[in-house]
TrEMBL record:
The keyword Zinc-finger does not apply. The lineage of its organism: Bacteria, Bacillati, Bacillota, Bacilli, Lactobacillales. Keywords: Membrane, Transmembrane, Transmembrane helix. It comes from the Bacteria. This is QueT transporter family protein. It comes from Ligilactobacillus pobuzihii. It holds the Pfam family QueT.
Length: 156
């Protein structure tokens, strides 16, 4: 399977997991299941592009429209790149995935700021609610990705 095909599959999976659960995917209380895929960035840089492209497309359905397409997508790009970068300096897969969980949870400030500026949602409360949702989803995703990686080499 080519790099482009793998990237497109991850992007499509991100879009489907976001759009299929729209009530959970957007707003000040989020449980965006597609964020589980952020964990894949520690295995190969191609997943950074797949998740980022998927986020861009999924944000077409966001009530914040172009603002979310730009800033939400940039946040995803930074978050997955940081996960990949930190993962390059850790030796064990569980440590790499734990790094991703921490990075993604902390990076929720960007979503909180965007919601604060666009819809006047209270920043700290939104950071807490989005951060909790991100933590839970990415943690569950870390376990799933860890198990998948035991059967399928995600580095290839």
């Amino acid at each position: 399977m080519s790099e482009i095909t793998k990237t497109a599959l991850i992007a499509a999976l991100y879009v489907v997991l976001t759009v299929a659960f729209i009530p959970l995917s957007y707003g000040p209380v989020q449980f965006r299941l597609s964020e589980m895929l952020n964990n894949m960035a520690v295995f190969n840089k191609r997943y950074i592009w797949g998740v980022t492209l998927g986020c861009l497309i999924a944000n077409l359905w966001s009530s914040m429209g172009p603002i979310d397409m730009i800033f939400g997508t940039l946040q995803t790009l930074v978050m997955t790149w940081l996960s990949w970068y930190v993962g390059q300096h850790l030796s064990s897969v569980p440590a790499k995935l734990a790094g991703t969980v921490i990075i993604c949870t902390l990076m929720s400030w960007a979503v909180a700021l965007e919601l604060n500026l666009v819809s006047e949602a209270p920043f700290w409360w939104t950071y807490l609610t989005v951060g909790i949702g991100e933590f839970v989803v990415v943690l569950i995703g870390a376990v799933i990705v860890w198990l998948v990686n035991k059967k399928v080499d995600l580095r290839r």
